[in-house]
Amino acid sequence: MNEHIHTLKKELKKSIIGQEGMIEGLLIGLLCDGHILVEGVPGLAKTSTINALSSALGLTAKRIQFTPDLLPSDIIGAQIYNPKDHSFSIKKGPLFTHLLLADEINRAPAKVQSALLEVMQERQITIAEETFILERPFLVMATQNPIEQEGVYALPEAQLDRFMMKLLVSHNSEEEELHIMRKVANKSFQVIETVLDKETLFSLQDALQSIHIDEELERYIVQLISATREPQKFGLDISSDIMFGASPRASIDLYKASKARAFLRGHSFVSPADIGYVIHNVLRHRIVLSYEARAKGMNSDEIISKIVETLPIP
Amino acid sequence: MNLSIKDIYVKHNLGKFLCLVSLFFTLLSSLYASDFDYHVEVDKTNPYLKESVLLTFDVNQSNHDMVLLFDFDLKKSESYTFQRVDIQEKDDYHAMQIRYTYLIYPLKKGSITIAFALKQKATTDESVAYSFSGDRDNVKGLVTKDTDILVPPLRLDVKALPKDTQLVGDFTLEYRIKSHQAKAYEPLPLEITLHGQGYPPVLPHLLPKDTLFTSFTEKPLIKSYATITGTQSTVTYPMALSHDKSFVLKPILIKAFNPKEQKSYLLSVPQQAFSIAPIHTAQLLDPVDVPPSSTVDWSWIAHLFEYLLLFGAGYFTAILSQKYPFWRRSKTALTHPNPLRQKIAQAPSYKALLQLLLAQDSQVFIPTIERLESSIYSHPIHPSHTSIPLSTLKKEALEQLK
Q: Best label site of A46, A106, B286, B393, fewest CB within 10 Å?
């Protein structure tokens, strides 16, 4: 494994116990300039992970709690009138940061979600007539709570597509929870120190370009994505379960995420296992199930599993 | 009625007197505040009871160095009722001009006073700009300095109406009777509509009081709108009459007074005779749907046995399922093997097993996946690693499943 990545993971483990999947997902997002959607019940160290990552990388981190009365100007900023000198000044919102935790993104109405997702895509913010380019790296980790569905504004598919990966975070194991409990009770969590700087992070992003991916695997990625659109072409009897398959953005993200996963494992090339590790995270929010599939109680993970199970690996 | 001095001189004596009173009142009420002036005007000062009086109230900003806003209304009173007809606003920069127009209807005869509520709201350009700046969904409240302005009340001398007058204004009456024949107790719809200009013609009752028939009434349907010439109203009274024998509806007479022409007139519905066909009460009984009961109903015993049978079936099923495992479906279900376990056991090759484990998206299989990978692709990181038998890897995966 890359020495820097090893150091970073070691530093993060000082305050984050378990949740390797979430940490790895965040690192993939950071290396690929992608954004992460996290689904999980409250209290699974989402805020702590973002804070730990920002401290370890010397980056700024902010958190926005999305609520139904939130307005676009609350997150992007606004022009404020100053009566003393009769002038307008710009007050920047919390989106001006490196790492952003958008907590419970589906609690805010569509206009706020759109404002955030536009910034995620364009990486620039326009207030009044002034446009600000966001400083790199810019990573949004948005969360959704799967257990409370009353009074929420579900993210439309087109907007979900802008998230590189959707991670499902579950509770820690009993051993890990015991460890957390003791550490919190004894206040024995160590302080996270800055172990990498921005320049090193950028060099790691550049290093990702040198990870080799065989043409056969590139074709395998494209076939996996095609199978979500035309499953019958690959001998899959799931056509009636899928309303819409994954977009071209999914192929790009799966390609990038596989490379990042190989890099995190310390490999110089991508293997089918790297694709298999990330495919569920990359595709689960991009496949729209049909009414029939939802009535059967299916989820997109089952569809992805069937595709992986059926398509022969190179 | 805004009269010039020239107009006053050319009028007859009574006209001269009334105009002088109006002019006097106008001048008296034109008081000037420091930042603005106001002007009250009425078209008459001695109306009849319930005759409309048109009132205009003008506010003109005189201090052009500040931003002024106004709140104006008449104070409510039992002596009169009023309707706001119009507000005309000319909000030039620092020169606000507003004209409020009201229709007032005096409700008491003699001397009554109309009271006003005027509030001056002073603010600044900065405050206005601030209240409109930023997000359109986030408009800030306008900060104003409010001052209550004392406006002298307006006195009206209200003349009494001729005796027994029920309506004031110029109205017409229309009535509609669908039929003059009906069976006993069948309703006979009757509709009376009053239409015209004046005090809204809403009367508590229209039908004569000492009647033998039964009357059914609803709330009148009122359509009314105020203009500067008066209030236009259409009031419809829907009713129905019913009786068991023929009857006569006496004439309905409504005495009205037109204040413009200063004369009384009568609105009427002439006498109406209704012919009722009697019905024999024996014919009203329903011999089909409610036949007389002739036998004793024993069906409840059959229902009781049904309930007892269902209860017994449930009770004994529960006892049997506890005693004999044959009855327990859940146990049967538990004996089914895990399909993944079967699939792992039947995987024909390394690649098929790798594919199967990757499809599970589970962290528990990561060690096996890595060993499988090195077996298939001769991982360069572990060059010394020899191929592990497929059966060993299957066994390992099955153990991770537990």
A: B286
Residue pLDDT, tens place only, A67-91: 888 888 888 888 888 777 778 888 8
- Burial status of residue B321 (CB atoms within 10 A of its CB: 0-12, 13-18, 19 or more): middle
Structural domains present in chain A: 3-199 (3.40.50.300), 211-310 (1.10.8.80)
Contact B134 A73 (CB under 8 A): yes
- Give residue limits of the domains in chain B: 31-158, 167-283, 334-401
List, for residues B157-195, the tens digit of each pLDDT value.
Answer: 999 999 999 999 999 999 999 899 998 888 999 999 999
Cα pseudo-dihedral A15, A16, A18, A20, rounded to 10 = -130
Q: How far apart are CA A277 and CA A261, in angstroms?
A: 8
At residue A173, the pLDDT reads 82
Contact A313 B126 (CB under 8 A): no
Q: Do A272 and B358 touch (CB under 8 A)?
A: yes
The overall average pLDDT reported for chain B is: 82
Give the residue numbers in A contacting B (CB under 8 Å), as ranges.
20-21, 71-73, 78-81, 83, 86, 88, 266-267, 271-273, 276-277, 279-280, 301, 304-306, 308-309, 311-313
**pLDDT given at position A192:** 82
Question: Is B135 in CB contact (< 8 Å) with chain A?
Answer: yes
What is the dihedral angle through the alpha carbons of A99, A101, A105, A110, rounded to the nearest 10 degrees?
A: -30
Nearest to A81 among B130, B137, B373 (CB): B130
- Residue-wise over B83-97: b if at least 16 C-beta within 10 A, else e? bebeeeeeeeeeebe
Query: Domain B167-283 is of which CATH architecture?
Result: Sandwich (2.60)
Find the mean pLDDT for residues B97-126: 92
List the structure tokens of B397.
Answer: 């995966």
Q: What is the pLDDT of residue A150?
A: 65
CB of B213 within 8 A of CB of B247? yes
pLDDT given at position B7: 42
ipTM of the complex: 0.78
Q: Indicate whether A136 pLDDT > 50.
A: yes
CB B298 within 8 A of CB B289: no
Domains B31-158 and B167-283 fall in the same CATH topology:
yes
Nearest to A57 by CA among A123, A7, A3: A7
Q: What class is the B31-158 domain?
A: mainly beta
